[in-house]
Write a structure and sequence with these properties.
The protein has 289 residues and is of the alpha/beta class. It is built from nine helices and 14 strands. The strands form four sheets. Strands 5-8-2-1-11-13-14-12 form an eight-stranded mixed beta sheet, sandwiched between helices. Strands 3-4 form a two-stranded antiparallel ribbon. A two-stranded antiparallel sheet has the order 6-7.
Length: 289
Amino acid sequence: MTTDFSNAERARVLVEALPYIDKYRGQCVVIKYGGNAMINEELRSQVMEDIVLLHMIGVKVVLVHGGGPKISEMMDKLGKKPEFVDGLRVTDKETMEIVQMVLSGKINKTLVNLLESKGGNAVGLSGLDGRLIECSMKDEKLGFVGEVEKINIEPVTDLLEKGYIPVISTIGCDEEGNVYNINGDTAVAYIAGVLEAKRLIMLTDIAGVLKDKNDPSTLIPELTIEEAGKLFEENVIAGGMIPKVDCCITALCKGVQKAIIMDGRVPHSLLMELLTDEGAGTMFVKTEK
């Protein structure tokens, strides 16, 4: 059985997308692309195609990326064992150099190159450029792990106004110029908040918030901040989901209209979320549905 669309079906899909194209044209959408979601090269290429399509229809896309698996991989190659405390990477000076090299070098420029090869206009940034992300030391036991203090958003808005897709790696610096590794989920919440983004989309390796973590059919399609708080109390939101949900709640409180956690491994899930009735993942909203 063929899955090819007829010309008529392609036309119908485009016509049905028109209201959504009109809804998002000129609006800011911030996308957090998690390290675990970008491992598969074919899927990563499709995500970049989706971002370029959104860019071409007039959406102001900002891409913020992680890269934890690649950092750990490089550390292993250099004979350095990764260490984590409460889900955060312990970052001594040598580890910070590796983080900066992998995030702002290899991963950032690979994503920029992919976007350009798909027909987009992209520019790579780190939190050091224009002092985009100012931070302080989060906890001495973690070493060079930063707590966000201020976002200087002008480098991002300047690029958006000139028609570029900003691609941001989440390292930052303090007033003395010390460089810090910053949790990507935390950083993107602040960036999206300052931009007052229409949507914050977290592309991860999970479908969203599940009532039963072992049953994908229990996906919760929409949550208010209050409902999410109850799920924290009931331990439904636990483990690695905690920082992602915290990120969405922080973003809403800082000015983002809606935030979504969704599976970036599903082909074209980004377009399904923004340009169809179907949607994808779990959407977080401030008030009652």
